[in-house]
Amino acid sequence: MTDAKPANAAPRLIPFMYHLVVNTTRLPLLLRGQRVVALGRELIPATGRLVIAGGNHTSNMDPFIIAQTLPEGRRVQFMAKKELFKGPVGWIISGGGSFPVDRKKNDLGAIRNALRVLQAEGTLGIFPEGTRGGQELQGGTALLALKGKAPITPVWLNLKGRTWIVRFGEPIQPTGSVRELTERLDAAFDALDAQS
């Protein structure tokens, strides 16, 4: 008997590892005296495929903070830069369901993995800028949402004093062209930023 996953399966998410990663990443926040407040969680659909799109990626903690604020039963699998998947850290975040992407090329393997997460009725986490630091939105998030027939829930993170404010927006339905959907996502991020 083999434990190999089928070639067309979504990246494996081990629930124990997922919860270990999410709960362990609370520690650095506690040590810094920081807390996390989630606004708009009720806007997140309880079930079904979903893309969680982070509008501003400023910290290595962003994916973990988003994961901490999702409703019970909603586990997010992030597409993350391949450099994070080396050594023990890579094994841990892989066990948590995340998967690598080579940002220097059109990584078809990562795109397939993202679509498999959605086809399995999972939650895909992605930062549409493609990196930290306020870049222009890339069209990949819209493309994945359209191909995967998944709504996009925009999320905006803001650190005010010692409080992380995680603000979720209304889900955006996957309709129109990649460009149109990217523009709607960008407008949703602007609206969330204005509320921060």
TrEMBL record:
Superkingdom classification of source: Bacteria
GO BP: any one term: phosphatidic acid biosynthetic process
Domain Phospholipid/glycerol acyltransferase: 51-160
Keywords attached to this entry: Acyltransferase, Transferase
Pfam families: Acyltransferase (PF01553)
Record GO terms (molecular function): 1-acylglycerol-3-phosphate O-acyltransferase activity
SMART domains given in the database record: PlsC
UniProt xrefs under InterPro entries: Plipid/glycerol_acylTrfase
Alphabetized SUPFAM superfamilies for the sequence: Glycerol-3-phosphate (1)-acyltransferase (SSF69593)
Coiled-coil annotated residue ranges, if any: none
Protein name from the UniProt record: 1-acyl-sn-glycerol-3-phosphate acyltransferase
The species this protein was found in: Deinococcus aquiradiocola
